[in-house]
Here is the input.
Amino acid sequence: LGLLLSAGVRVGFVLTYYRVPQQFTDLFLSFELSPYTVLAIVLVFYIVLGMFLEPVSMTFITLPTIYPLMDAAGFDLIWFGVVYTITMEIAVLTPPVGLNLYVIQAIGREQVSIGDVIMGCLPFIAAMILLISILILSPDVALWLPEQMR
Here is the structure.
C-alpha cells in the first residue's frame, strides 16, 4: 500500500510539473459541455475506476487533474469534495473488484457468498446515488455546515 501511495504521489507531482492538469482542463472545456455533463462524466469515471483501484490511490493519481477541471466548470470545491467522497464510497462497493465487498464477505466467513453481499449492498448504493442527486439539486445541503464555520 505504501508503494502504491508513493507512486501515486510521484505521478501527481510529474503531472503537475508538466502542467497536465491545466492542459487537460483546457482540452475538456474546449468541448463546451455543460458543467453538469462534465460532473456526470467525472462521477462515472470515478465509479468505473473504483472497480479496480482503492480510493486513496485514485485520489493521489487523479484529483490533481480533476480538481482544476471542477473549479473551471464553476463548482464549489467544498461541495465537490462531499460529492467526491460519496462517489468513492459507491466505487468501493461496485463489482467486480469493489474492495469493501470482499471485506464484508470475509467478516461473514464462509456463510455468505459474494452474490449475497452484492445484493445486500444494492440498497446502500441506491441511497448514495439518491444523496448525490439531492446534493446536485440542492448544493446548500452540503455547504450549510461549512458556511456556518466562516
Notes: The chain is about 80% helix and 0% strand. Helices lie at 2-17, 20-29, 35-50, 55-72, 77-91, 99-107, 114-137, 140-148. Residues 2 and 8 are 10 Å apart (CA to CA). The first helix runs from residue 2 to 17.
